[in-house]
Amino acid sequence: MQIQQLAGQSIGTKNLARQDSLVIEQTLLIQELRLLQNHLEQLEEKIGQIVENSREGQILTSIPPIGPLFAASIIATIGSIGHFEDAAHLKSYFGWAPIRTQTGVSFDRTRLTRAGSREMKKVMFLVAWKAVQMDTEWAKLYKRLVPRLCFYDERKQAYKGKGKALGHIIGRLITLIFTLLKKDYELLNKLSPDTESPPPTRYDPELHQHHRTGHYSPLRREGPQNRIVQHSS
After folding, report:
1. Which pTM does this prediction carry?
2. Which helix (H) or strand (E) holds 228?
3. What is the dihedral angle through the alpha carbons of 187, 190, 196, 198, rounded to the nearest 10 degrees?
4. 45 & 69 share domain
5. Which of 87, 88, 102, 134 could covalently link to 178 via disulfide, CB atoms 3.0 to 4.6 Å apart?
6. Are residues 101 and 129 part of one domain?
7. Segments of the chain scoring below 50 in pLDDT
8. Based on the domain organization, do 34 and 136 belong to the same domain?
9. CB 99, CB 111: distance < 8 Å
């Protein structure tokens, strides 16, 4: 009781003018917060509409768990997938390209490159983390990778170093993103100006069976006519 009485007498201000100014300040800050929340809701709604009406957005949002905001970040960062020769260049641009330090015939360690977009490094981490938490093929792959890539701590009865498995998931997600966007980009470039564009090819587990193993390879050109084909590793 004594502590409560002392706190009531010592904490805060007793000046009525100061109390009145604090109430006004609090009221204005609450109104400003609500205004910012309203602006954020409008922006997210507009972003969702833009992504939904774009070919790249329709492709990206078909990949679980990429939503409109994640897709918008990816599209804004990439610009045009035609700027990237293969999936390895896109991984490096996203900051998820591994670098191996080698001594003799063995590798000492593997780390991520410090280059690339910091924003996309965060975005892809969140996408992958959400993917392994949901009922997706990525989650099944993650569960298979953890015992293979991680160290099991007997004392804690848990695997350590799960970031390695998550990094593999991110790399394969980026490869899938590159493959689908590049395929659509090359398809549109082959169309004549007066030809109506076909619907974009979206991700479908039945059509893209390699999603379950993560083995995606970039498109390659084959034959004298430079026919575009997709092959698996």
Report:
1. 0.74
2. strand 227-229
3. -20
4. no
5. 87
6. yes
7. 211-233
8. no
9. yes
Which residues neighbour 142 within 8 Å (Cβ) at sequence distance 6 or greater?
131, 132, 165, 166, 169
pLDDT at position 221: 45
**Residues 206/164, Cβ–Cβ less than 8 Å:** no
Classify 96 as helix, strand or coil.
coil
* Domain annotation covers residue 85: yes
Predicted pLDDT of residue 104 = 59
Tell me the residue range of the domain where 26 lies: 17-50
User: Which amino acid makes up residue 12?
Assistant: G
The answer to whether residue 125 is domain-embedded is yes
Q: Is the dihedral of CA 92, 95, 96, 98 positive or negative?
A: positive
Which tokens is 196 given?
């109506």
CB atoms within 10 A of CB 204: 10
Whole-number Cα distances in Å, 54 to 7, 81, 82, 96, 106 = 59, 14, 16, 26, 47
Q: Which of 169, 181, 215, 171 is nearest to 78 (CA)?
A: 181
Same domain for 36 and 69: no
